[in-house]
Each structure stands twice: as structure tokens, then as C-alpha cells.
Amino acid sequence: MISFTCDYNEGAHPLILERLASTNMIQQPGYGEDSFCENAKEKIRQTIGRPQADVFFLVGGTQTNSTVIDAMLRGYEGVVAAQTGHIAVHESGAVEFSGHKVLTLPQHQGKICPDELESYLKAFHDDPTWPHMVWPGMVYISFPTEYGTIYSKEELTKIHSICKSHKIPLFIDGARLGYGLMSPACDITIKEFAGLCDAFYFGGTKVGALCGEAVVFPEGNAPGHFFTTVKQHGALLAKGRLLGIQFDVLFTDELYFRISRNAIDKAMQIKAMFTEKGVPMFIDSPTNQQFPILTGEQMAALEGKVLFEVWEPLPDGRYVTRFATSWCTTQEQINDLYRLLQESH
Amino acid sequence: MISFTCDYNEGAHPLILERLASTNMIQQPGYGEDSFCENAKEKIRQTIGRPQADVFFLVGGTQTNSTVIDAMLRGYEGVVAAQTGHIAVHESGAVEFSGHKVLTLPQHQGKICPDELESYLKAFHDDPTWPHMVWPGMVYISFPTEYGTIYSKEELTKIHSICKSHKIPLFIDGARLGYGLMSPACDITIKEFAGLCDAFYFGGTKVGALCGEAVVFPEGNAPGHFFTTVKQHGALLAKGRLLGIQFDVLFTDELYFRISRNAIDKAMQIKAMFTEKGVPMFIDSPTNQQFPILTGEQMAALEGKVLFEVWEPLPDGRYVTRFATSWCTTQEQINDLYRLLQESH
Amino acid sequence: MISFTCDYNEGAHPLILERLASTNMIQQPGYGEDSFCENAKEKIRQTIGRPQADVFFLVGGTQTNSTVIDAMLRGYEGVVAAQTGHIAVHESGAVEFSGHKVLTLPQHQGKICPDELESYLKAFHDDPTWPHMVWPGMVYISFPTEYGTIYSKEELTKIHSICKSHKIPLFIDGARLGYGLMSPACDITIKEFAGLCDAFYFGGTKVGALCGEAVVFPEGNAPGHFFTTVKQHGALLAKGRLLGIQFDVLFTDELYFRISRNAIDKAMQIKAMFTEKGVPMFIDSPTNQQFPILTGEQMAALEGKVLFEVWEPLPDGRYVTRFATSWCTTQEQINDLYRLLQESH
Amino acid sequence: MISFTCDYNEGAHPLILERLASTNMIQQPGYGEDSFCENAKEKIRQTIGRPQADVFFLVGGTQTNSTVIDAMLRGYEGVVAAQTGHIAVHESGAVEFSGHKVLTLPQHQGKICPDELESYLKAFHDDPTWPHMVWPGMVYISFPTEYGTIYSKEELTKIHSICKSHKIPLFIDGARLGYGLMSPACDITIKEFAGLCDAFYFGGTKVGALCGEAVVFPEGNAPGHFFTTVKQHGALLAKGRLLGIQFDVLFTDELYFRISRNAIDKAMQIKAMFTEKGVPMFIDSPTNQQFPILTGEQMAALEGKVLFEVWEPLPDGRYVTRFATSWCTTQEQINDLYRLLQESH
């Protein structure tokens, strides 16, 4: 049975496994001080066109979000996010665990609206009771969002500019960054992207690695003692080589972007085949997550043959579902899905 | 240049890499709900002779310590540990980050003394000001300790019994558990061990895995909602298969114990060769960490030829050093070290 | 110039000051173990008709909220509250500071809707991703709410029943409890009230005390080691007598309720005089906070003569204002306000 | 029965109660923005000879310690203190609750030794594993200490100088500051004192107030957003006037120092009468806490006639006891104690 439930159903890109094997017995120091990490960092700096960038490798997404946010905030500050932001919903309160409030804004297909951000910040500062409230100390957005949508260059520019005018950093959750950048709808390069935020990460877990997220502070602006904060958060990998090797491979010959493009190609095929069948999409997602609205009957017809996520029930009895492709989705899997749809509809 | 600086200088046992490769494209759910994790858990339950045990896979040691401790304590409680305990010294305050105090006892070659534990707990409860103090809510020990020493069965039994009489759990940090159990000085089996504590973990990172620690609650006594606490601490691996596969391999055909024994064999050779040369040992460690006391001259003679850690300077100008063997230390490396010692002394 | 800005503009009820003076040199132990506290607790137990109740005296409202909530929750749990709840908006993130998320529900004139609470809890438990989310571990409501409204007996009964069916406690913020209970719209007695929640407090700061909130666990259900948690939160007053004496006075001869009624009487006069002038009220508040909607012109006419709060601007250019009466508002102040309104409109 | 158990057995200085009464119905804004607070701050600035100082009023000692420490530290930092420091022992882990470790140094009659502090900081920075440890981010001392001893001007100067050389602030817990400054052994003025630290507080609770601690940042160096941090810690008093009025009175005509001197005079009489009786003192305390070593027989003779604290049992069967005088200890109480000692020995 094929699965489109998420983009981390398989292991790692074969080149990663090969490199892990070929370097296995080379002795290297721990905690990210190995030469693999150094190489990977250098390649990432080149990719974003910023030799001054600070790069750190952490293990997973929730961990990365809570560690970076805690490191960038002072104790009295909170982080502004969409109400559907991963940190606001699906991280078991990891941000609050480190003492900070998530201050939510309305979401529009998973995105925050620059004007609403500006209004929110203005209203906060205009409110005479602000000293009794949580200071909005940074802005968090996801690229792509939890709904597969992406911000345009204009939107990112506006949001970053608002942040700068309020002297607060912009942090971008890039758990699926490759899938965003390789989308046909994306009008921004990675070099431009790196210039429009204060911190972001290249997600590895969902883009071909066994685990790992590469946190980037583009202007060499890592918070002081970030290494210690990473350790304090339980996010420091002893065998840092595991992360270094993976990102070294991913950022060699643009592998990260090439495998991201595969997911997009396959997702567009999925979108097309549902559309062909007259199945409406909940959101017009330009990335690797597609959200067909299925009837109970349509879902039943697929049951036992293909796995996908039921995202949420609709008032009319239908369901928003999610079909996610990934770095390793094959044409064969897509063809199988097409066949199933033909048979079942 | 050979390195004895630590037991995580290399990658993983080759069988682990093979299994990662052979299972790579099998689609499995995330977050530890894959079949590899299930198999690994089952093997661990058999290893400890407790089908009722709860088993969870986390990524690293500091993370595991702070997550388990936070999950087992109430907000007003602290954890008792040796003043040299890893959680007390080398975890960047990860336990305090989750709001709990580390209450320290004197160390004796890295171990706490059962009588001193009992006295401490009695003194706490006899002190009329105890409601103004941090309640000792659990006891943490390491097996082996940070100094390579191990508790005897009698000591463990006493400590566990003291804990039971005070109704507080005993948690054992097993980052190097295999090296302790395979020591010739160890008088306890893993099944007995599992019956003498309330939680412990099989360290993978230092015993042949790329990463991973297998937390065991021997009587099925995992704290409620432990999964959510793991996620909240940023300790939940999306591709849980990476951990499941590794522990599945490590607990197949007793691989974990066999490779642990290798480290012990090699460490005993190191101890013998230093002793032969008249070099005193700081501690008579029965495990994979050996602590020769070297003069500056002796250290200089080895410089550039072999890597090891300088543990601490002694008042007389000599240095405590640490030579650590591991699951993959080869006889050739040991022979090289022997040759170097012959030449340099 | 008279002020209606809040209900803590003055000191304390004269009987409190007299009692502080007359008991001043009596030596008593600290930390709430004095006889004044004991007497006050006994009177509160009688007031609520529950000899089994646990009573603790804390200093302020935010402190009380965060201490009680942290004590009643496990680490992985959050607290459900109205989006306008004091803990959600005006406590500088004190709840998050202790590691817990505030999970917000829509507000209806400051209140949560029982049906929406039930739906929220049901949706949480129906969501297969719940282990990745913050467990709703208790419900917090304010009585009266931040908008001066109060829950009916039926509403409280429903909310408490929903909590019980989900096995989570209901905690009621009673910073202005007296003003709620003495409202003509209130259909519940304090004895009934105490039976419809798991914890609540009699606010003293806003009802005639210099400071102090009396936390009540009606069924003797205080969380274990609550004293230590109070100390840990910096909420334990060394001279506990200051709180004991005040609550002893407030709960002698029903002073707490009598002075609360004064605030209500005066508030109703304010409501009537604005209504007489054709000024609409933003909310039909039955308690000591009244929210007239004033034009800029009307506000200007009062400027420099009477103080009140500007609550929020309306889209049409008018302003929601707040006039708060208190335990010590005099008829003379009310008459002055009336005269001002006559002159200025 | 007279009590010497502590210095907070009674209410407040009568002048405070008078002022509370005479100002009671004056309407003032809340949260410390009242004119009483402003006056009190001004008087404190004059007292320390620093018009630039920031002054804040908090309610209690533990609260003040944890709030100031949390505000002055970054997340990865801890606070250095004597192992007998109040924050290390008797605050229920309030510092750890805010995420920071208390890093302890040996105590010498309650004091830390400047040389040991320097050695500790040097050892930390020389240790190559420091990034895995808690960064010593500030130094906390008490004046007087928990054992009634005080630092000399030379010691304070050394400690402050060490802090400056390591670029970390020195924070002095002045819960009993008046008793230290008025000691005959004190060789420092309050103006000099204020120049030898980065933050300190005038304790009110133990020196004649009902409650309240006046935190001073002598060079106007309060941490940013300190007001919000105070609120977040539940330490912001709504009726700030209660604190403002008390400190206004205490710093009018040097009342704070005059009543402190009373405690010292009486304590010296107690020391003399025990010495006359041949009772040894555990520590030669120059402040208001005296520590006679009594036999069980001597203690029994006083039982039921005078209250004091049993500090700790000695190995030889005797007990260290504590007799504390205060701002309001009367000559009559001292005479009574003298009579009791005459009768019972």
C-alpha cells in the first residue's frame, strides 16, 4: 500500500547513507566540531551567498523552534505567529515550556497578513496597559506554511520591514524550505530569502535526511552562547557528524533543491489528477502538500489501497484530506494513485 | 593519529548502517509508531525480562535526563545526584531549565554513598524548615559513573531500598550502561538491574549507535502523557525509525553487550600497559574509561601521536588524563598505543 | 478630582487599619501560621459552609492565578480560558512563565460559552494529533469577568459538569468576587458557588483590603505541597498576619459582602445616570464596572473633572470607557459625577 | 511569653500605621505610579547619594531575589552564591523555577571568600568543557549573611572588583540591610555600599514594615522592561501605595537606620548576657542574630518562657540556637530574658 501521509515516511537519500558508510570509522571530535560539519556549514554559507553567516545543526523541528526562539527572546518577550503556526498548535507547548507566550495573529491559508501584523504591533504599543502584557519580541512564520502555501517576495519584504521598524527579529521555520523554494509559485531565490529574515532553517528531516535542521543566522548574528543554549535545551547531538555528513551531502551539487523539486513535480501531478476528477482542493497549495476535499464515499473507495491524512471534517460532511509528496516520491507511486482514482470515481 | 578522547568518535556499528540501508525505502509512520521501534521495544523487554516494561526512544543523553526527570517530578521537587553527576555539571543547566533543582551529595569516585543518601533524606525531613526547601523527589545516579566506576549489587539494592522507603523513584543514567554491565567488576545482571530502579536507559550514542537512548520504565510505570512531555522537550524524533532500527540491531543477538565487552577488553589492556610502565591510575576504573596520571613530560611525549583528554591538573603538577575505549576500538589501535608508550617512556 | 478609574485607588477599609493597629505588637509566628490567619480561615470555611476547605492567603491576583494554575497542572497541561481572560491578556505571561500554555476560547461579553467549551474539549480528544498538542488540564473563568459580567448558576453548573466529565478542575478567579455575588443579577449563593468549582479565591485587593487574595480549595483538595509551591512562586508573605488580620476583619459580620454591595449600589446609579442622558452602555454590566460609550466631545467635557479609563476606541470614533465603583465609593462622589454630567451634556 | 524567634514577629512601626491611616482615602493610581512611591524613591536616591538610581518596590524577599536574578541573567546563565545563601537553601527553588542554576561556593560564617570566587571563575573559564556548563552570570551575596555576619569594605571592594573584571553584576540581598549597616562592626556607609554593587535592596519586611523590599539599581541600570518582569513574576502590587507609604516613612528622618540600631543594641546585650553566663557563641555575629550554643538542659530551662530557634544540633549533643532581635525589641524584653537566664543557669 502506498502512503502519502507525510514527507518523512522513508529513510534518507541514498547518497547520505553511502556517505555515512564511507566515513563511518573516521575518528572525529563530537558536538559539531568535526570536519563534516565544517564542510557543510561552508557549503550552506555559499548557498546563501553569505560567508559571514552562523550555521548550527540541530536534530528536529520542534526542538529547533523552541531553542532558537528562547535564545532570541528575553524573558518578558513572546513570539508572534499565525494561529495555525506549528509552534502555536503542534509542539505540545514547547515554546511555553521555555517561558514564552505565543502571540497569535489570524491566518490566511496558513499565512499572516503584513497589514494585520503592523496593526497588531501598533495596537500593542498604543495600548497604555502594555507593560502588563507580553512584549512581542519576534515574529515567526513558516515557509511553506502548515497549509502548503508560501509567502511572495513582496509579502516577505513587507513583514521583514515591519519587523525592522519595530526592532524585532523575523524567524522563518523552514522545516520544508526546499519544497517552498522549488515551488513554481515561488518568486524568491534562497539568497534573497536569507536577506529577508534574521534567522531561518533548512529542514532536513522532511527533505531527505534521517534527521537534522540547519539553523542559519545570515549576518553572523547568532545569539551569544547559542551552543550552551542548544545543550541546555537537550538539542546538542554528541555525534554531530551525523548532522554534518547529511547536510554536506544535501548541499553538494544542489541535492537539497533537486530532491525538493521532485516532490513539487509529483504534487502538481496529484493536484492535476484530483482536479481532473472534479475533486475540489481546500487550498490552492503550490508545494508538496495537497488538500483534496473528499466525500466519505470517495474516502472509502481509497481505503486499504492508499494512505493519506484526514485533515479536518467540513460542516457539509465532506473531509479535507492531505496528500503529501516528498523528496523520494516515485512516478510509479503517482501512477498507482492515478489508477486508483480512475477505478474508484 | 589515533584518538582515545571519547567513546563517540566514530559513526555506528556496521550492522546498523546496513540495516538503515536495507530498510531505507520502506514506508513507515513517524514519531516512533513504526514497526522497527515496536520490534526494538520487544527485544528490550525480553532482555530485561519484563514484558510489562514501557520503552521510549530519545535522541541524546542530556535530553533524556532532563525529559525523564521533568516528567517524573512535580513542580516543587528536585533531583538528588552526586556533585559530579552529569546533570549537576555538564548539561548546561538543562534540569534547572525545566524548573527543578539538582540537590547534590558528596561523590566517592563518582558514586553517592547509600548512608549519606539516607542521612540527607532524614536530615531534610527532620528540618522544620523543610517546607521552604526543595523536596527531594527522586534520586539520579549514573551507571557507570562519570569516573568509570560502578555500583555493586549491594549498593544498588541499598539505594533503591532507601528510595522506596522514602517513596521516591530511582533513575539511572545508562549513557554507558553496556560498559558497566560488561565490566569484570560488575556483579549484577541486566534483569536484576532493571528490578533495582524505577527508570533507566540503555545509552546508544556511546555504545555503537549514531544517536539514541532507550528509556525503560521497567514496571510499565511511565509517567502519564510521557509522549507529550517528550515532544514538549523537543525530544521526539519525527523519523523514529532511525532509533527503532538502531536499537533493533543492537538488541539482536546481544550485539549491545558484545560490543560493550570489546571496549572493556581494550580498556583493561590500556590499564595494564600504563601500570606496567609505572604510571599510577587516578581511579581504579573497571570500565571503558581509564584515568592515568601523567607528568607534563609524559604528555608531551605522546603529543601529536595519540589523542586523549586532560581531565584535571593535580596540585603536584601532574595531570589526570582520560583514555576512553569504545565498542569499536581495535586491537591495532591498542598495539599502536603500546608501541608509543614503549618509545616514549 | 474624583476618580472612577479602578477599584483599588484607595487604601483599606478603616476596620482593617484599626485592627492592624490594635494587634500590631502581638508577637506571632510568620508565614501564615499565626492565629489571625487561623481565625480568618475558619470564618471563610463557615462562610462557604465547608469545614473541610483548605484556605491559603496570597498577596495579589496575578500571583494567585499563576501559583494556583501551576500547582494544579502537570507539566504537559495547559489552562483553558476566555481570550479576554486576565491570565490570557494582562498578566505579562505569568502562566507561560511557569511553563503552561493558555488555551483560549471565544469570549461573549467576557464569558466562555459552555457549549463551546464542550466542543473544544471534544474536538481536542477527537483529534488524532492530540499527543502533539497541549492537554487542556483545567478551566479558568473569572467571576465577575473582565467585562463586569457574571455567569448564571445554570452556566456555572454546566461548565463545572463539563469539567467533571473530562476530569479536569475548574478554577474561578474571584479578584472581584464580592462584586459578582452582590450583583442584583446574581442567582447564586456563595455556598452554592463553592460547590461548583474546584478552586477559587476571594479577592481582597479590589474589595477593601490593602492586598491579599484568599484561595479556597472547597473540598480540602489543595494540591500537595502547596505551601512550598507558594514559596517557590515568591508568593509567601513572611508577615502572614497582614493577610490574616485583613481577611479576619473582612469575614467578620459579613463586611466583605456589605462593602461589595456598596459598590454595586453606586454602579447602578452610574448606569442609570448615563442611561438618563442617553449614553449607551457597551455591555449591560450588572457589577461594579460600567462601560458607557462616549463621544470625544463628551469625554472632553469631563476632562480634568473626573478620572475614568478609556477602554477601547470604536470604529465610529466613539470610545468605550470604564467607570469603576468600589467598596468605598461615596454617595457624594456619585452626586458629583451626576452634577458633572448634567453640566456637560 | 517573649519571642526572639525572628525579626518579623510583630506588625509595623507605629509611624507606618499612622501614615497608612492618614492617607487612606486619598485616591491614587495603582501599580506603583502613586505619589507615595515617588516620594519614597526620591528619599532612597538621596539616602544613597545617587539621583540616577532606579528604585522599585517589591513585596517579599524570595520574590525579590528570584525576580531580580531572572531579570539580570540570560537564559544560559546561573548565579553564584554561598552554599548557605538564602537563594541556595530556603527559597523552595525559586531561582531554579525561573530556569537558572544556583552555582555554590563554600561559605565561611555565611560569607563567600573573594579569592575562592576568583579561583572559581578562573577555573570555569580555563575548563575547556565550559560551553557544556552553566555560565556564571552574576554573584549574589547577603548583607548581613544568613549567619548574621557582614562583609568588610575591603571584602566588598574585592568581590565587586572581581565581578567587574569578569563583566558580571554583583547583587546584594539586603533583607536585613539596616541591621548590617548599623552594626558596630560595619566599616562602610550606605553611599559607599551602593557604589560597590550593581543591584541591592533595602529589606523592609524584617526592618519595621508590614511587607516590602526596595530594590535599587544604583546607576540607573535597571534591566529593560523590569516592570513587566516584576508583573510576570507575580511581584507587582496593585496597591503600590502600601509599599510607597511604608518606605516613605522608613526613609524619613532616617527611621530605617534608627530602628535598625535598636536591634543591634539589644542583640549586643543578648550576646553579653550569654557570654557572662559562660555560654559560647557559634559565630561571633555583629548583627541582630545571635547564635548561643546551649545544652539540652539549658534549653529545657528556658522552655515555655522564651521562644527562640533551634538552628542545628551539634555532634556533641549541644544545639546551636538563634536569638533574633528586631526594630521593636524592647529593653523590657531584654531584661526579662536576662532574668530568665539568671534563674535558669
Any chance you could write out the topology, listing elements then pairs?
The structure is a homotetramer of 345-residue chains.
Chain A: E1 2-3, H1 14-22, H2 35-48, E2 54-58, H3 61-72, E3 77-82, H4 86-89, H5 94-97, E4 102-105, H6 114-126, E5 135-142, H7 153-165, E6 170-173, H8 177-181, H9 190-194, E7 199-203, E8 213-217, H10 226-232, H11 241-250, H12 255-276, E9 289-290, E10 293-294, H13 296-302, E11 306-307, E12 309-313, E13 319-324, H14 331-344
Parallel strand pairs in A: 1-11, 3-4, 3-5, 5-6, 6-7
Antiparallel strand pairs in A: 2-8, 7-8, 9-13, 10-13, 12-13
Describe what you observe in this structure.
4 copies of one chain form a homotetramer. The first copy, chain A, is of the alpha/beta class. Chain A folds into 2 domains: 2-7 and 256-344, Aspartate Aminotransferase, domain 1 (Alpha-Beta Complex); 14-253, Aspartate Aminotransferase, domain 2, CATH 3.40.640. Helices cover 40% and strands 16% of the residues of chain A. In chain A, the strands form 3 sheets. A 7-stranded mixed sheet of chain A has the order 2-8-7-6-5-3-4, with helices on both faces. In chain A, a hairpin with a 5-residue loop joins β12 and β13. In chain A, α1 (14-22) packs across α11, α2 runs parallel beside α11 and α12 runs parallel beside α14 (331-344). The model of chain A has no long low-confidence stretch (mean pLDDT 97). At the C-D interface, β1, α1, α3 and α10 of C face β1, α1, α3 and α10 of D.
